[in-house]
């Protein structure tokens, strides 16, 4: 059996590995000259940057692929558990360093934020319980198969339905749980992990902190792109063929079944096709003659991002190892984002510095800064104007908090915005996580991992079930491989 995978994103690569282990002949077609999709890298002078995701959780989802292939994960891929999850800065001078030790985190949160330590511990315990209930249902099985809803896992979910936060928003749940506004804000921010608004998205997403606190935050030895490269190496060792600079032009369908791919004006015959491309452009561009699931494709998109990649000619010891948040008024910020306005004038800044750990990512005495601002998906906004204003607002905010003119320290710069995200990764409107999760039914409204109209056509990655982010993209690969089997 011959299988084609469209797109060498992390979900597509993982699917290739799983199918190769099932004895299938697999070829991957990637329009770019490099693998990884959003999980890629680039060099900027003497600075190296991970271009996309900057937080690594659930490493077992990666190492499982090596074990499945009968390989020693350490021969391909190495990582550390971060001793500190994050550092938070507020403009009023409040500071909080979040230890990987939950008890230490709880004590520090009580000291810095005034939130009782027992509240933090109880919240994370409840998040672990919710994850245990939901993970087997949402992460391991297709929601579009009757067998999923009649399983023991499903009935356990039905029995615990009132505890899962489906009927209220994340912000409502957090305001009812925590006493201090900054604690609410801290846990509200996890909505951004799938491009959502905490004032709209269901409280079910309060399971996300479980991954970061109870399981841990990790960092690959070779940077985030090390995940991509290690899996590409594994796939090649299993016989998977990669075609880079090979843009798929059309999925040819005959008698309601996949027939072949059209690539660079040539036809390639395959028994199965798995699209790791965003589901919307897969239909709109590659299946122009097929029936389109417009109700799904036309849904509002998740948030996107505006990212500044700066080479900084100074070291800031107070910024810690990895993840740093300079926080602000989330309510006003999300009102701007999801009403498709400009970037909020005093935005929350997510700053990631891999050179704190991977020294060759920046020259000695310097740092590489990855600065992410939450942004709306691309709907024709004046992005050049937005970028110029946001850039100055970011410099002003960082300069206030760090006591130095950051603008004078920027040695080189690259910028990624929703337009360029859309162009480079074929993500509809530059949305980072496909369709929006800002309603209680969002999990059930994602496209299935298979086509119900076209035989032997499957879908993998962040725009389909179960959702966006590295762990969910890897989960979708397992679901697709199991369905094909």
Describe the SSE topology:
Elements: E1 2-6, H1 10-21, E2 25-30, E3 41-44, E4 47-50, H2 60-68, E5 79-81, E6 84-90, E7 95-99, H3 102-113, H4 117-138, H5 146-149, H6 152-159, H7 170-177, H8 181-188, H9 208-215, E8 218-220, H10 225-237, E9 241-244, E10 248-254, E11 257-263, E12 266-269, E13 272-275, H11 279-286, H12 294-297, E14 304-312, E15 323-327, H13 330-338, E16 349-352, E17 367-375, H14 383-402, E18 410-416, H15 418-425, H16 442-445, E19 457-459, H17 470-484
Parallel strand pairs: 1-2, 1-13, 2-9, 6-15, 13-19
Antiparallel strand pairs: 3-4, 5-8, 6-7, 10-11, 11-12, 14-17, 14-18, 15-16, 16-17
Helix pairs in contact: 1-10, 1-17, 3-4, 4-6, 4-9, 7-8
Describe the structure.
This protein has 485 residues and is an alpha/beta fold. Among the domains are: 2-40 and 224-298 and 439-484, FAD/NAD(P)-binding domain (3-Layer(bba) Sandwich); 101-215, no CATH class. Helices cover 35% and strands 21% of the residues. It contains 17 helices and 19 strands. The chain has a seven-stranded mixed sheet. The mean pLDDT is 91.
Order the strands across the largest sheet as they lie in space.
7-6-15-16-17-14-18
Q: What sort of overall outline do the alpha carbons produce when their principal axes are compared?
A: globular
Number of DSSP helical runs:
17
Assess the beta-strand content as a share of residues. 15-25%
- CATH second-level architecture of the domain at 2-40 and 224-298 and 439-484: 3-Layer(bba) Sandwich
* Major beta sheet summary: 7 strands, mixed
Mean pLDDT rating:
91
Please identify the structural class as seen in this structure. alpha/beta
Unreliable stretches: none
Radius of gyration: 22 Å
Share of helical residues: 25-40%
Beta strand count: 19
| CATH fold-level name of the domain at 2-40 and 224-298 and 439-484 | FAD/NAD(P)-binding domain
Query: In CATH, what is the class of the domain at 2-40 and 224-298 and 439-484?
Result: Alpha Beta
């Amino acid at each position: 059996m011959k299988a084609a995978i469209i797109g060498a994103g992390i979900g597509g690569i993982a699917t290739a590995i799983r199918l190769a282990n099932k004895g299938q002949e697999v070829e991957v077609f990637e329009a770019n000259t490099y693998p990884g999709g959003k999980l890629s890298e680039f060099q900027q002078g003497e600075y190296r940057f991970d271009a996309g995701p900057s937080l690594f959780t659930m490493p077992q989802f990666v190492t499982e692929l090596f074990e499945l292939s009968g390989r020693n994960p350490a021969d391909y891929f190495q990582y550390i558990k971060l001793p500190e999850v994050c550092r938070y800065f507020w403009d009023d001078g409040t500071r909080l360093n979040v230890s990987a030790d939950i008890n230490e985190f709880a004590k520090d949160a009580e000291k810095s934020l005034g939130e009782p330590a027992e509240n933090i511990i109880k919240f994370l315990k409840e998040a672990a319980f919710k994850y245990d209930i939901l993970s087997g249902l949402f992460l391991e099985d297709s929601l579009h198969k009757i067998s999923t809803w009649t399983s023991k896992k499903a009935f356990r979910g039905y029995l615990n339905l009132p505890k899962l936060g489906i009927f209220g928003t994340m912000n409502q749940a957090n305001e009812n749980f925590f006493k201090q506004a900054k604690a609410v804000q801290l846990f509200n921010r996890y909505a951004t992990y799938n491009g959502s608004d905490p004032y709209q998205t269901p409280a079910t997403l309060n399971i996300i902190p479980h991954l970061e606190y109870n399981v841990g935050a990790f960092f690959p030895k070779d940077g985030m792109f090390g995940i991509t490269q290690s899996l590409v190496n594994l796939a090649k060792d299993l016989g998977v063929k990669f075609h880079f600079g090979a843009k798929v032009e059309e999925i040819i369908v005959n008698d309601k079944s996949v027939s072949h791919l059209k690539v660079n004006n040539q036809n390639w015959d395959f028994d199965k096709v798995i699209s790791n491309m965003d589901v919307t452009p897969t239909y709109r561009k590659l299946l122009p003659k097929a029936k389109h699931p417009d109700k799904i494709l036309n849904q509002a998109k998740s948030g996107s991002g505006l990212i500044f990649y700066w080479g900084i000619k100074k070291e800031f010891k107070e910024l810690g190892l990895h993840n740093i948040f300079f926080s602000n008024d989330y309510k006003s910020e999300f009102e701007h984002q999801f009403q498709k306005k400009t970037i909020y004038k005093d935005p929350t800044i997510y700053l990631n510095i891999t050179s704190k750990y991977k020294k060759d990512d920046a020259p000695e005495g310097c740092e590489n800064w990855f600065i992410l601002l939450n942004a709306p998906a691309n709907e024709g906004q004046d992005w050049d104007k937005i970028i110029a204003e946001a850039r100055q607002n970011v410099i002003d905010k960082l300069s206030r908090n760090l006591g130095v003119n950051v603008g004078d320290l920027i040695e080189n710069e690259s910028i990624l915005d929703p337009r360029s995200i859309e162009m480079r990764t074929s993500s509809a409107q530059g949305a980072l996580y496909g369709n929006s999760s800002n309603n209680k039914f969002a999990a059930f409204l994602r496209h299935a991992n298979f086509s119900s109209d076209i035989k032997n056509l499957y879908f993998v990655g962040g725009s389909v079930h179960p959702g966006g982010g590295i762990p969910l993209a890897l989960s979708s690969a397992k679901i697709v491989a199991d369905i094909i089997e």
